[in-house]
Amino acid sequence: MTLVRVLFYFLSFIAIVSALYAASSKNLVRSIFVFFVTLFSLAGLYVLALADFVAVTQVVIYVGGILVLILFAFMLSGKETLNVLQKQEGKFLNIKKLPAIILAVLFFIVLVNVVFKADVNNLPWVKDAISLKNEVTPTDIMIDNIGVNLMTRYLLPFEAISILLLVALVGAAHLSRKEGKA
């Protein structure tokens, strides 16, 4: 087993465990800080995949900017809002969570359908990119390969991170808004 494979398994394990903990933890501050660990491990996976630009972008934008914004939104939210959120937590399945569960299941079905039915190797622009160069080596100029790599190899993780970012921003906006008299 090579060092790259060991690092891949290690970073994957850290990413999966920290993401599961962030999603299942009832303590919001811990979830936010564990989400830092998740995004850093994903940046490490991007480095292993020779996507240096995506890794640096993720650290600078997602970890450096967005998660700090979420943390500040959490800190600025009133205690009343957090108490209401904690009182609403109950059983895992209740009628109030049904729309969110249905949307999550539908999104998962669409995602699985796209992964299994997509024939990305037969797209003309992918064939052209493959015919020009089969492999990206570390000695190549990485900026030249960003567009091709983002639209071929790293499209699914990049879009998954963007959807996760959107959900996190909606959650931060919901937590930071003031429930008051209008």
Would you write up a description of this structure?
The structure is a single chain. This protein is mostly helical. It is 74% helix and 0% strand. It contains eight helices and no strands. The radius of gyration is 20 Å and the shape is globular. The protein starts with a helix and ends in a 6-residue tail after the last helix. The model has no long low-confidence stretch (mean pLDDT 77).
Draw up the topology in text.
Blueprint: H1 3-24, H2 28-48, H3 52-76, H4 79-88, H5 98-117, H6 124-132, H7 146-151, H8 155-176
Helix pairs in contact: 1-2, 2-3, 3-8
Point out poorly predicted stretches.
none
Radius of gyration: 20 Å
Order of helices and strands: HHHHHHHH
- Note the overall shape: globular
| CA(first)-CA(last) distance | 62 Å
* Number of strand elements: 0
